[in-house]
From TrEMBL:
One of its GO terms (molecular function) is DNA-binding transcription factor activity. SUPFAM superfamilies: GntR ligand-binding domain-like, Winged helix' DNA-binding domain. This is GntR family transcriptional regulator. CDD domains: WHTH_GntR (cd07377). Keywords: DNA-binding, Transcription, Transcription regulation. Coiled coil: none annotated. It comes from the Bacteria. Residues 9-77 form the HTH gntR-type domain. InterPro entries: GntR_C (IPR011711), TF_FadR/GntR_C (IPR008920), Tscrpt_reg_HTH_GntR (IPR000524), WH-like_DNA-bd_sf (IPR036388), WH_DNA-bd_sf (IPR036390). It comes from Schinkia azotoformans LMG 9581. The lineage of its organism: Bacteria, Bacillati, Bacillota, Bacilli, Bacillales.
């Protein structure tokens, strides 16, 4: 049952981001009525369950409005990208930290494989910059959480897959919620204040980057899975 739930949430994330992209590109214009649920479900290649969850989240984020008997319309004033993600994330804020990490795993394991295939020299520089920032913060005894997010988002950008990148942005928006902050305090005590744990933390990130640089997608996937599973175990 848990696997079905995770898959369902992941599909809803993807569908919501696909609809946002279609609005952004002008396929669905402000004030325009969206296609029926049946048509949208067929277009997105999903069942109506995840679609309805995505539409509900988008409505809560003030991106669309459903009018009884008339249909669902794109709002005339669309929130900024940052605020849209924040609002959308807030509708999903009842998800536990473990739920988020479990959703991250299949997405990021796929992401590192795509990053290994598609990364550019600039992508490598972005990942390296975030990694060096993590090392500096750790050496100063500070929490590298923001730099860690930058590293993982740089991987998502390197995939050259816009939907995956936006999905990761949404997931990290969820991680700005209060429950995640509380969880990170517990995780920080287990990772960032123990010399051995710090070395392991740096090592896994260096190895992930190395695998991406060398286009070794199998190794990158194995390392990312190991990294995220380790975080779940430490909660």
């Amino acid at each position: 049952m848990e696997i079905v739930s995770i898959q369902h949430n992941r599909l809803a994330f993807k569908v919501s981001q696909q609809i946002i992209e279609l609005i952004k590109t002008g396929e669905y214009k402000p004030g325009e009525r969206l296609p029926s649920e049946r048509e949208l479900a067929e277009k997105m290649g999903v069942s109506r369950g995840p679609l309805r969850e995505a539409l509900s989240a988008l409505q809560s984020a003030n991106i669309i409005t459903t009018k009884t008997g008339a249909g669902t319309f794109v709002n005339e004033v669309i929130p900024t990208k940052k605020n849209a993600f924040k609002a959308l994330a807030s509708t999903l804020s009842d998800q536990s930290p473990i739920d988020i990490l479990e959703v991250r795993e299949p997405i990021e394991v796929k992401a590192v494989a795509l990053a290994a295939e598609n990364r550019t020299e600039q992508d490598i520089k972005n990942m390296l910059k975030a990694l060096e920032k993590q090392k500096l913060l750790l050496s100063l005894g500070k929490d590298p959480k923001d730099a860690d997010m930058e590293f993982h988002l740089a991987i998502a950008k390197a995939t050259n897959n816009t939907v995956l990148e936006k999905t990761m942005e949404l997931i990290f928006s969820l991680m700005d919620q209060d429950f995640w902050e509380a969880m990170m305090e517990n995780l920080s005590d287990k990772i960032y204040k123990d010399e051995k744990a710090i070395k392991e933390y740096i090592w896994i990130h260096e190895e992930i980057l190395s695998a991406i640089v060398n286009r070794n997608k199998e190794k990158a996937q194995l390392l990312m899975k190991l990294h995220l599973n380790d975080q779940i175990e430490k909660l």
